[in-house]
Amino acid sequence: MYAVIETGGEQYRVKNGDEVFIEKL
Fold it and tell me: Distance between CA 18 and CA 13 in Å, rounded?
Protein backbone atom coordinates (compact mmCIF):
# COMPACT_ATOMS: atom_id res chain seq x y z
CA MET A 1 0.00 0.00 0.00
CA TYR A 2 1.42 3.36 -0.95
CA ALA A 3 0.39 6.97 -1.43
CA VAL A 4 1.43 9.19 -4.32
CA ILE A 5 1.94 12.87 -3.59
CA GLU A 6 2.29 15.36 -6.43
CA THR A 7 3.96 18.67 -5.59
CA GLY A 8 5.17 21.30 -8.02
CA GLY A 9 5.16 18.75 -10.82
CA GLU A 10 7.31 16.34 -8.81
CA GLN A 11 5.99 12.97 -7.74
CA TYR A 12 6.78 11.25 -4.45
CA ARG A 13 5.87 7.67 -3.64
CA VAL A 14 5.44 7.04 0.07
CA LYS A 15 5.27 3.49 1.37
CA ASN A 16 4.04 2.51 4.82
CA GLY A 17 6.83 2.90 7.38
CA ASP A 18 8.72 5.49 5.36
CA GLU A 19 9.12 9.03 6.65
CA VAL A 20 9.14 11.64 3.91
CA PHE A 21 9.66 15.33 4.51
CA ILE A 22 8.58 17.63 1.69
CA GLU A 23 9.35 21.34 1.78
CA LYS A 24 6.63 23.51 0.31
CA LEU A 25 7.71 26.75 -1.30
Answer: 10
Q: The dihedral of CA 4, 6, 9, 15: what is its sign?
A: negative
* CA 5 to chain centroid: 4
- Cα separation, 25 vs 15, in Å, equals 24
Q: What is the DSSP string of 1-25?
A: -EEEEEETTEEEEEETT--------
* Span 1-25, pLDDT tens digits: 667 777 777 777 776 666 666 665 5
